[in-house]
Amino acid sequence: MGIPIENQIIQFIGFFCSEIFHFLLLYFIHTRATKQFGSYKILMASFSVFSIVYALVEILIEPIMHVSGTGLMLYVGSSVINYSKQVGHYLSVLYCSSFALCVFFLSAHFFYSFTAVCSPRLLRMLDGYKVFRLLIPIFSLGTLMFINVSWFGTPSDFKSEYLRESLKREYNDDSYTVGQISAVFYVSFSNGELPYILPFYRSMTLLVPLEYSGRTALGSSTST
């Protein structure tokens, strides 16, 4: 069954509006933005290009988020293209990583604005095409996110069986065949035992400190 037709129409309208507006924004950045914007023009343009790609990824997979009990699944709900389970898995990972990249891009914009206001002398380090230095941590963290999500969200028979009945009931889809990232955080017995704990928690102990240490380093560099 997948996504209801009215929701699909809304998604496609949103996709076309997003593409049109961002291409218009790129045009105005190229033709109307003055030299006073400096290298910030490049940063704005890079975010618009990313948004165009992000919207394309979203419409290609039409993601559906399903939550049941302690399990969750994000799977490909596209009715236009029929992906294999493996391709659908990596497309779902790409979608989640792209969402994280959006946050990282916004952090770069904040960093540039903060530097311009509080430490304008440091802007020479981001002059012209040097502003692309800000993209290094963005795509580094994005790659780390892709690997992390791909690892802990890998589908398995255990996860598929746990979510099988609820997914069939709600969307009439088969959890064993759809391209997905899925997780079951824990399963408890009546005696209180927790025989299954998602390794996602262990992966987060690596990812979260790296992300916040990067933010701390950026913040300390602008305050000195």
UniProtKB/TrEMBL annotation:
Keywords: Membrane, Transmembrane, Transmembrane helix. InterPro entries: 7TM_GPCR_serpentine_rcpt_Str. The chain crosses the membrane at residues 12-30, 42-61, 90-112, 132-154. This is Uncharacterized protein. It comes from the Eukaryota. Pfam families: 7TM_GPCR_Str. The keyword Transmembrane helix applies.
